[in-house]
């Protein structure tokens, strides 16, 4: 029995040795095949050091600095519309007149009552003056003077109340005329003569939008905040809005940086103001906002095509001395005219600028064509 166990172990040992020899031959063959494969032709560029402008681009939405929806404070029938759609108005300009017959009558009634009570007050003051003279001559008692004084005081209070009623009636009458609180352009008018206007109406009677100056709201990554604030403090920050349809651009200034970064997406909201005297920017329009925030000094640049994205982020294939490539993680700082400003590469390093999508780490490459030192293929 013992001899049979020994024989089985020997057989297993021989089988394992044969299997190891077979795998070893396969591995050696694969390595030899890889070594025999010719280098892959790719574009190769050198990492260059250049002075480039810091240009930050974002999509902005044009927004009005002031926008007012006109609604009545009291109910009333629209008697007259004094403006037209699309018209420019000045602050205080008359927009609508509501029917004010009842308010006008109430004002006249209050004014008439005031005049009546004022006449009675004057008569009471004269009686008070006469009673004081008679008291000095001992023709009347003090009680008569006191009674006249009380009557004059009561009428004086009545006149004051009448004046308050007049002011209230005048205010109610003023509510029947609606004027522009700001200057701007009138939008759609939703009411016409004969329409019942009410404070709780859903749609405004009209909207006034101030279009000059005007703002453009946009967002930037939080990493750009330092460059923006430094350029703004130095007075060197230039802001430009470009229209997508015509390509026309207008210059403005940065007027607002939000007080906090949006933690959900790591962006910061900013606003730029443009004079817009020619009216080229329109509320609700989308524009490309460009900020010139100074210059990068001797920044490392590579062609944009050399920048790849993988599961772990952005990288480039760096070419080693033996012609093999390896992944080099990089941080993208900016893109300017097909050049990427990056961190993570040294000036003078060779990177694959064309054909990197077909490579794997360790592949051998050769230059398909010579490229300029500034980053060409």
UniProtKB/TrEMBL annotation:
Keywords: Cell inner membrane, Cell membrane, Membrane, Signal, Transport. It is found in: Cell membrane. Residues 1-22 form the signal peptide. Residues 66-209 form the Multidrug resistance protein MdtA-like barrel-sandwich hybrid domain. It comes from the Bacteria. Residues 298-355 form the Multidrug resistance protein MdtA-like C-terminal permuted SH3 domain. Transmembrane segments: none annotated. SUPFAM superfamilies: HlyD-like secretion proteins. Residues 213-294 form the Multidrug resistance protein MdtA-like beta-barrel domain. Residues 106-175 form the Multidrug resistance protein MdtA-like alpha-helical hairpin domain. Belongs to the membrane fusion protein (MFP) (TC 8.A.1) family. This is Efflux RND transporter periplasmic adaptor subunit.
């Amino acid at each position: 029995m013992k001899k049979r166990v020994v024989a089985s172990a020997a057989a297993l040992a021989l089988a394992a040795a044969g299997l190891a020899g077979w795998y070893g031959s396969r591995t050696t063959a694969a390595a030899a095949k890889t070594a025999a494969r010719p280098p892959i032709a790719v574009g190769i560029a050198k990492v260059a050091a250049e002075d480039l402008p810091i240009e930050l681009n974002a999509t902005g939405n044009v927004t009005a600095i002031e926008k007012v929806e006109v609604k009545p404070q009291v109910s009333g029938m629209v008697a007259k519309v004094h403006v037209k759609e699309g018209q420019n108005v000045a602050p205080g300009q008359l927009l609508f007149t509501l029917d004010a017959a009842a308010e006008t009558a109430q004002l006249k009634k209050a004014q008439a009552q005031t005049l009546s009570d004022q006449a009675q007050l004057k008569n009471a003051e004269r009686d008070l003056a006469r009673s004081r003279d008679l008291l000095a001559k001992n023709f009347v008692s003090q009680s008569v003077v006191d009674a006249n004084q009380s009557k004059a005081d009561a009428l004086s209070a009545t006149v004051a109340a009448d004046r308050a009623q007049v002011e209230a009636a005048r205010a109610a009458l003023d509510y029947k005329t609606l004027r522009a609180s700001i200057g701007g352009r009138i939008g759609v008018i939703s009411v016409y003569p004969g329409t019942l206007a009410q404070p709780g109406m859903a749609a405004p009677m009209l909207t006034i939008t101030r279009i000059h100056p005007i703002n453009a709201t946009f967002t930037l990554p939080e990493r750009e905040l330092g460059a923006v604030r430094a350029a703004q403090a130095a007075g060197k920050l230039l802001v430009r809005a470009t229209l997508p349809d015509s390509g026309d651009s207008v210059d403005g200034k940065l007027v607002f940086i939000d007080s906090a970064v949006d933690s959900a997406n790591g962006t910061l909201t900013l606003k730029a103001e443009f004079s817009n005297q020619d009216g080229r920017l329109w509320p609700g329009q989308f524009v490309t906002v460009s900020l010139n925030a100074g210059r990068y000094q001797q920044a490392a640049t590579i062609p944009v095509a050399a920048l790849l994205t993988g599961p772990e982020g952005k990288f480039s294939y760096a070419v080693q001395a033996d012609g093999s490539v390896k992944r080099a993680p990089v941080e993208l700082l900016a893109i300017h005219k097909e050049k990427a400003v990056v961190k993570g590469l040294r000036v003078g390093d060779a990177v694959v600028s064309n054909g990197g999508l077909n490579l794997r780490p360790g592949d051998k490459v050769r230059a398909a064509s010579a490229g300029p030192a500034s980053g060409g293929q």
